[in-house]
Specification:
The protein has 96 residues and is mostly beta strands. It is built from two helices and seven strands; from the N terminus they run αββββαβββ. The protein starts with 11 loop residues before the first helix and ends with a strand.
Length: 96
Amino acid sequence: MNCPCCGKRLTVKALNTQVEVNGRKVVGTRTCQNCGAISGTVSLGDSYSIVKPFMTCEDVPMAQTIYFDFKTLGSQGIGRRHGWFDPKTRLVVQAG
């Protein structure tokens, strides 16, 4: 499996790494060892615990952002959330 951001092959370690939020590991997530992108298949609520569903009003330099790409399952079925977010505030900087 390749990273959706940089295209590098994800290592076994990356595939077995889960994102941790408030001391809880979010099952179904993985982090690219090369670029730090977060991806995976999670519930819509779990995706909101990693990246809030709101845009930031701040001008965050792209070098300080992290790419995210989630396949989500919510009340309206299967969806996708992807873009860049600020890891300090967990707010979306750029969607899609």
